[in-house]
Specification:
814 residues; Iron complex outermembrane recepter protein; globular; 22-stranded antiparallel beta barrel; transmembrane; cell outer membrane; Maltoporin, Chain A; 47% strand; transport; mainly beta
């Protein structure tokens, strides 16, 4: 496919709180929904930091095409990095805020709690052991703006809001708009297509509306391995010839020729997974009269992906059926992810009391399909495609919210009832079973000729199948006092009871004081909690991975805390995380068009839930202990294993300037975050080394695998029909620990530059061309020991491994 040719002139960024300031005075009009229940607040006078991202303005000129990718470049404390060869995680990007986990960020849609995915991240990526929310399920064409509350808010919204809250607000305008985007990486792969249309119409005579959005998108796979430049002995042949020096002395090409092969037979697909997605969303409101209105919103998303597992070599005779794959194979993990959400509610205003009753339903189902693989125990009779099962999560939330504004006071209170259900479904028998030489399921004493289950991803078996649910009930109260925008005080409290672990009571106090006009200080303190997700409590499976001793692929397992394995190893049942969150900062407007905020924070989390390292207790390989078919080389468990402390500071500086007949917006924004493990909770009776329970690699994921420093500096200049954008994003250094058979490596800081030039062809049509990472910056090359014998050239840290990406976009407004 022919590469796009892009001519780019300027570089810049549009960031967070500065995003609405392309026109003077705009930011005072941004009414904040998240973080308080007063309808009078703006982002200039909130007692805690809130960023407001105007999606129409930013998405028109930005290379990014999903909500999480946009936020990754406009909010420094937000991080999202695509993963590779990591099972389900490369189909749903983990997102983090202020250095915390994906499950410590609460996502709202139109102010209502959004469900999480059913996927547990367990492949030692960022967010390992956590369950997050998939922001990509919400089409960008449907979003009006995104509010990001950078402060703990569990006392207001309940579980998961330890690090902050992301509130996505759907469009409610009338009229029509559309967008067409095509893009391609600088290496002629990763081609992207996106087509979206949004249509809004009035309902009735009292400002009712219905807004519909349809979006179709495609992202091609990328290859970022060594390819034809591989040292084959240092890569795929390392398994086969490492112990044979006579063969190892031969030339690579001679060996390939002798076997009648080509180098392509030994290529390893490593890079971004291919993703196709279709989404249909709606947002509506219908006033029956001046006091009473009905509303509803929601949508449907289907995502299909193809990712890749580790390559199986011809020499791995226990894993490879040579009659089917004489040259070995690399399995393809296919996903079908269905995400559905629907909310319906009614608002009634009587004597200035606003009553809001709603029901919000959401579900996420993740189906696994494995192809280009085999069940080695079936020999030549093995299928090459398998349905490997599924997991799903359902959440239904009933809310009653009541509020009233009395002069300078706002009073709010209400209640919530939430029901959650988690389910694992089995795959095809051949996807998980091991067969004997006669083709029957192997039992004790059977003779087998190969490893059972689908290679690369073993299917969920009947032993994994479960269906668990729980419910919770909460009541809250929220009071705020505003004195002429000089003094703001918020007090909130929340009591919550869970059917599976008990009660939680949390509170929050936030204050803002403007001691001189345009100069204010603000601070907040609060407690929080996060209930263990049903996924963390009950997820269990077997999976293929590199042996802890290296040089071979083996079966490992994840056991839930109700399992026989957990009982034998003395693991406790999961309990809630608890937290204390403090923040303090100031806001300044020292000159016309200049806006500055600085906010420091500290977040202490006790009994943080993580997934352990690979525990190699011999009892896990004993069928008499764990049950026939559950035997694994090592096992992992979810545990309240650590306490952490996170400290950081956010800085945002924005300046609007009339220049040369146009409008120039200058932005500087940055975040510094440091997380430290302050204590370990090691079970007294467990007989395993500390490094296996929670070793250096797991500590690395918590403390140093994400950049501690992230910043952005840029320009956005509009003049006449032209708009010029440059966005320079600084990603600080990260450290990756390849324990147990790799080594510690430091990845140096990098700067990624985005550019675009937009032109208004007509009043209603805009054309924009540009690039993400125009200078083709990559993370440092991995050291050999961490690269899986030279295959993983780059680790998916900092900005990811896409490299330069060029795009063109047409925007229509009618």
């Amino acid at each position: 496919m022919k590469k796009l040719s892009i001519a780019v002139l300027l570089l810049g960024t549009i960031l967070t709180a500065a995003q609405e300031q392309e026109e003077k005075g705009k930011q005072i009009e941004d009414i904040i929904i998240v973080g308080n229940r007063s309808a009078k607040r703006t982002k200039l006078d909130t007692p805690v930091p809130v960023d407001v991202i105007n999606i129409d303005k930013i998405q028109k000129s930005s290379p990014q095409m999903t909500a999480q990718d946009l936020l990754n470049y406009v909010i420094p404390s937000f991080n999202s990095v695509r993963q590779s060869a990591s099972d389900g995680t490369e189909h749903i990007d983990p997102v983090t805020l202020r250095g915390m986990g994906p499950d410590q960020v609460l996502v709202l849609l139109n102010g209502k709690r959004r469900h999480t995915t059913s996927l547990v991240n367990y492949q030692n990526t960022v967010g390992n052991g956590s369950v997050g929310t998939d922001l990509s399920t919400i089409p960008i064409i449907a979003i009006e703006k995104i509010e990001v509350l950078r402060d703990g808010a569990a006392a207001q919204y309940g579980s998961d809001a330890i690090a902050g809250v992301i509130n996505i607000i759907l469009k409610k305008n009338t009229g029509a708009s559309a967008s067409l985007t095509y893009g391609l990486s600088g290496r002629n792969d990763g081609d992207t297509y996106q087509a979206g249309v949004n249509y809004g119409a009035s309902l009735g005579k009292n400002e009712g509306f219905v807004n519909l959005s349809l979006q179709l998108s495609h992202r091609g796979k990328t290859t970022r391995t060594q390819n034809h430049d591989l040292d084959i002995f240092g890569n795929n042949f390392a398994y086969e010839f490492a112990d044979n020096p006579d063969i190892a002395r031969k030339n690579d090409d001679d060996i390939i020729k002798e076997r009648g092969l080509t180098r392509d037979d030994f290529n390893f697909q490593v890079g971004d997974a291919q993703i196709r997605q279709g989404q249909l969303f709606f947002n509506s409101e219908y006033p029956l009269n001046e006091q009473f209105k009905l509303y509803s919103f929601g949508g449907f998303s289907i995502k299909e992906g193809n990712g890749y597992g580790f390559r199986r070599l011809p020499s791995e005779t226990s894993n490879v059926v040579s009659s089917i794959y004489p040259n070995g194979f690399q399995a393809v993990l296919g996903s079908q992810i269905y995400d559905i959400s629907y909310a319906v509610g009614a608002k009634y205003n009587v004597n200035n009391w606003l009553i809001d009753l709603s029901n919000t339903l959401g579900s996420n189902t993740f189906n696994y399909n494995i192809s280009n693989t085999n069940n080695a125990s079936l020999g030549a009779k093995s299928p090459t495609r398998f349905y490997a099962g599924a997991h799903s999560f359902l959440q239904n939330t009933v809310n009653l919210d009541v509020s009233k504004n009395i002069k300078n006071f706002n009073i709010a209170f209400g209640g919530e009832f939430r029901f959650e259900q988690y389910q694992i479904k089995a795959g095809d028998e051949a996807s998980y079973a091991q067969y004997d030489v006669n083709g029957n399921i192997a039992v004790d004493g059977s003779t087998v000729s190969g490893v059972g289950g689908a290679q690369s991803f073993i299917g969920f078996s009947p032993r994994n199948v479960l269906k668990k649910d729980r419910h919770s009930t909460a009541v809250y109260a929220d009071f705020s006092y505003d004195l002429d925008k000089k003094l703001n005080i918020d007090v909130a409290g929340r009591f919550e009871n869970y059917s599976d672990f008990g009660n939680s009571l949390n509170g929050k106090l936030a204050i803002r004081y403007e001691f001189v006009k345009n100069y204010a200080v603000r601070a907040a303190v609060g407690t929080g909690f996060r209930a263990p997700s049903l996924q963390q409590q009950y997820f269990n499976n077997s999976y293929a991975d590199i042996s802890t001793t290296g040089l071979k692929i083996v079966t490992k397992g994840i056991f839930n805390n109700d399992s026989k394995a957990a009982e034998v190893l003395n693991f406790d049942r999961l309990k809630q995380e608890t937290s204390v969150n403090g923040s303090a900062g100031f806001t300044l407007k020292p000159a016309k068009g200049l806006f500055i905020t600085v906010d420091g924070y500290i977040i202490k989390v006790k009994d943080r839930i993580v997934i352990t390292g690979n525990i190699t207790d011999p009892r896990l390989s004993d069928p008499n202990v764990v049950g026939k078919g559950n035997e694994v080389e090592s096992g992992r468990f979810f545990a309240n294993a650590i306490d952490t402390e996170t400290k950081g500071v956010d800085v945002v500086v924005s300046y609007d300037w009339k220049l040369g007949g146009g409008n120039l917006n200058v932005n500087l924004a940055g975040n510094y975050t440091e997380t430290k493990i302050t204590d370990f909770h090691f079970p007294e009776n467990i007989n395993t080394p500390r490094d296996q329970y929670f070793g250096p690699d797991q500590i690395n994921i918590i403390e140093t695998l994400s950049p501690k420093t992230k910043a952005s500096l840029g320009l956005n200049y509009g003049i006449g029909k032209f708009n010029f954008l440059v966005r320079n994003t600084y990603f600080g250094k990260v450290i990756r620990d390849g324990f147990p058979f790799g080594e510690v490596q430091e990845f140096s800081p990098k700067v990624v530059t985005d550019v675009s030039v937009g032109y208004d062809i007509t009043k209603n049509i805009n054309f924009t061309i540009g690039a993400n990472n125009v200078l083709d910056v990559f993370p440092d090359l991995q050291v050999y020991k961490n690269s899986y014998y030279g295959v993983f050239k780059y680790a998916p840290v900092q900005m990811g491994t896409l490299g330069s990406y060029f795009f063109g976009r047409l925007n229509f407004n009618f």
